[in-house]
Amino acid sequence: MASRVLSSSxxxxxxxxxxxxxxxxxxxxxVNAATNAPVTEISRLSNGLTVxxxxxPSAQTATVGVWIDAGSRAETDATNGTAHFLExxxxxxxxxxxxxxxxxxxxxxxxxxxxxxxxxxxxxxxxSFRKDVPTAVDIISDILQNSKLETSAIERERDVILRExxxxxxxxxxxxxxxxxxxxxxxxxxxxxxLGPKKNILSIKQNDLSSYIQKxxxxxxxxxxxxxxVEHSELVKLAExxxxxxxxxxxxxxxxxxxxxxxxxxxSEVRIRDDTMNTANIAIAVEGVGWRxxxxxxMLTLQSIFGNWDxxxxxxxxxxxxxxxxxxxxxxxxxxxxxxxSYSDTGLWGIYLVTxxxxxxxxxxxxxxxxxxxxxxxxxxxxxxxxxxQLKASLLLSLDGTTAIAEDIGRQLVTSGRxxxxxxxxxxxxxxTTEDIKRVAQKYIWDNDIAIAALGRIEGxxxxxRIRADMSSLIx
Length: 476
What we know:
single chain, alpha+beta, Cytochrome Bc1 Complex, Chain A, domain 1, seven-stranded mixed beta sheet, six-stranded mixed beta sheet, 17 helices, 17% strand
């Protein structure tokens, strides 16, 4: 069977989240009825399962999936890695389908079945032809509720996950962002990696997997989402048929409320010096905002002001970000990526820098923080409006196809308990003012603690206290 049919996503750390979270989280696709565009229909079964659809009558394909309000954050130190391990085991056979039968059925449908795990969510979804939606829902229901979790399959999968971990460890960006979480959220669930430590991968047992399912795979923490060639009434009937027996949490918490204890952000750093590398890879972050924060859109706009830059793409003089002009004209970095990553109760807002100019790392960090500080004092109306336009475009252009729309539905409902329409998103972003940018910059950036994670040739990176002092002493 082609590997693309049953694949386990490698979206790890913040970056997978970052690229997705600041671009496609809380996106808008349900439109006012007056526009005659598709709307998001939402129903809830008696057991608390949420069913949501955006139907496109002319679509010949559909994406359906289950978004679960549980990821690596729902684990303990001893079981860290369980959620991701389960993602792998879902495709190893159920009480009704052997692994071979499952793979053959998906291939014969011409469908795509996939899963991924993040710090706060686990997702299983399938893309198929319109006529095969009932079978796709049946398969997803089966792997969610009836996976055999055979000991022999668990043992075989350990090596697969360890090889996956080795591949992730080769990706500098992933490594840096995992370390950034670890120092920013020390000793707390958000600080753990998604794959878990090697010792856990080697020791996770069938009972750990079963216990995680029993505790977290409950109807009130799930959203069954569909987009494209699927009618809402049809998906509700399929949900009643296949998910009615799902258990409910002892103390159900609505999707628009956080089930997690408040997380504490710690100003700190971690440095992994490796002189065999050619670059310095540095992430600097302040504490950001959660999904439901009233400052969510101002912080996204603030992130958009800095944007992303890569010298290999050319055209840097044409970019309107002042930071990109400074960095490119002085050859201070190879690239940078700004990010605004949200979780249920907290977030990370910052920048990831990559440079071969090892003699000028101090300047790179200095000018970056100077631009951050300028936002607290004198952001210009022009750059705020430009950032708002780019943000609105990125939010809407990210929705390309039924899979992206279904992901948007599931993610929004799991994280905020609602789905925003394009008009609502447009109004939220349009409502951000220059004064809002100054306010959130003063609140979250100015003279606030920072977390730093650095990897590679970082001998030129100044002492943490010196960098921290710049957060309050820089005057533009």
